[in-house]
Specification:
Layout: H1 3-18, E1 25-28, H2 40-45, E2 84-88, E3 91-93, H3 95-102, E4 105-109, E5 113-115, H4 129-137, H5 139-148, E6 152-153, H6 154-160, E7 165-167, H7 172-185, H8 189-201, H9 208-220, H10 226-234, H11 244-247
Parallel strand pairs: 1-2, 2-4, 3-5, 4-7
Antiparallel strand pairs: 5-6
């Protein structure tokens, strides 16, 4: 990912966020590789007198007050209101790993490989990798990846909790599309988004009590919309764990 690609990714997700008809997105890398990270050739092409790169991706101080700020890899500092799924095939390493852990969910095929490969070149993680990776898989396993830079295959990534599902070779995109369609099919998307927002925002709150209060406030803002869904349950929809009723509903 060079600067132009990062800019394009950021713009694409900005358009997704602003599109009221778009409910869920997926991120996929064509050509058998999800993403190998930032373009190190560009990073090393122009170096200033201070020793810092002038040719690499945009690296600026994160603004905690900006919900849609562009990050070095593009969308990685955006706090979207809607879910994104990473569809991983091939290598997902360095900045590519940071893109993947920015997403809400990760589906990979059986040949996918994850890793902090930038460790080999002395390039740090500056786009959320050291923050989001420990949150997803725990500090001990995250440090195993961060300190060693070793490759982590698909099944180990599943065991770690780094990925949510492993699918057959070459089918990650189809699986991500199907999952995105499933998520988008549920009624009252704002209810789901408030639950998602509560789960994400709790990390920045000082105590469990504050997190519970935030959950209550967010849920209460859409609670009236639950009446219609409760009525459908009363009338027999969804009994026995049946999800088919929702896919047939008019949304």
């Amino acid at each position: 990912v060079d600067r132009a690609t990062a800019d394009a990714l950021w713009q694409a997700f900005l358009e997704f966020e602003q599109d009221e008809c778009a409910k869920c997105a997926f991120l996929y890398g064509k050509g058998g590789t999800f993403c190998a990270g930032a373009d190190l050739k560009a990073l090393s092409s122009k170096v200033g007198t201070d020793g810092l790169s002038r040719g690499g991706n945009k690296v600026t101080d994160p603004d905690p007050n900006s919900r849609l700020q562009e990050g070095p890899m593009g969308p990685t500092r955006m706090a979207l209101s809607k879910p994104v799924i990473a569809a991983v095939e091939g290598h997902c390493v360095a900045g590519g790993l940071e893109l993947a852990v920015w997403c809400d969910l990760r589906i990979c095929d059986e040949l996918a490989v994850f890793g902090v490969f930038c460790r080999r070149w002395g390039v740090p993680l500056v786009d959320g990798g050291t923050v989001r990776l420990p949150r997803l898989i725990g500090q001990s396993r995250a440090l195993d990846m961060i300190l060693t830079g070793r490759p982590v295959p698909a099944l180990e990534a599943l065991h770690f909790g780094l990925v949510n599902r492993v699918v057959s070779k070459g089918t990650a995109r189809q699986a991500a599309e199907a999952l995105a369609s499933e998520i988008a099919s549920y009624p009252e998307q704002d209810c789901m988004r408030m639950d998602r927002r509560s789960a994400l925002e709790q990390w920045g709150l000082p105590s469990e009590g504050h997190s519970l209060l935030n959950e209550y406030r967010l849920g209460s803002s859409v609670l009236r919309r639950a009446v219609q869904g409760a009525g459908r349950f009363r009338d027999g929809a969804g009994r026995g764990g049946n999800f088919g009723d929702f896919s047939k509903s008019k949304l």
